[in-house]
């Protein structure tokens, strides 16, 4: 059996299930999963925790050198550390959801994190997911996937995810948040969300989680 390890880039809009699907695929393949979204969330948490104005790009970028942002891969995902503090659970709060697209639109933030992502991916046998992996972070990835789903499907999934947690919200609010993040991600100046020409589009609106995983594993097998 050919055990060539490739780099896989998975892009797509907010709530398409990129992270949870990438984790399972990475596990199945014995690959390293690099949660780039969690890295942007980590920076957002640090900005809010330092009481820096989210809308002040200069101040946000000035904070970056002191963050010491690191990822520690675990069996189920990635732990995120900022200045040695484990912030893995803290970065899932609603306040982070509302501000992460703004932070991610800043050029300095993207450069800071892309450099880290490329260094982590250089070894091969990795899956990265985000908005600009195929276009900016790993333009030479052997397999590029654009994972998407309708706004309604994505909002419903997120709504089900937060039921019974402290982040619970009405479905209508979640739908608005998904739509506004799409708008921001597609229209920002720095590395907007795009479906690159050589990406394979996977629309999971009518697929179950397991069906989507199976389909992506099949695409990987074809590529190796």
Protein model, in words:
The structure is a single chain. The chain has a single domain (7-223), classed as P-loop containing nucleotide triphosphate hydrolases (Rossmann fold, 3-Layer(aba) Sandwich), CATH 3.40.50. 48% of the residues lie in helices and 16% in strands. It is built from nine helices and eight strands. The chain has helices at 18-29, 36-49, 57-63, 94-104, 107-121, 133-137, 151-162, 171-187, 209-223; strands spanning 7-11, 32-35, 70-73, 78-82, 85-86, 126-130, 143-148, 200-203. Helix 1 (18-29) crosses helix 9, helix 4 runs parallel beside helix 8 and helix 7 crosses helix 8. The protein is globular, with a radius of gyration of 17 Å. It is α/β, with parallel strands linked by helices and 224 residues long. The chain starts with 6 loop residues before the first strand and ends with a helix. Strand 4 and strand 5 (85-86) form a beta hairpin. The strands form two sheets. It has a five-stranded parallel beta sheet with strand order 2-6-1-7-8, sandwiched between helices. It has a three-stranded antiparallel beta sheet with strand order 3-4-5, covered by helices on one side. Residues 8-221 form the Cytidylate kinase domain. Belongs to the cytidylate kinase family. Type 1 subfamily. One of its GO terms (molecular function) is CMP kinase activity. It is an enzyme of class 2 (transferase). It catalyses: dCMP + ATP = dCDP + ADP; CMP + ATP = CDP + ADP.
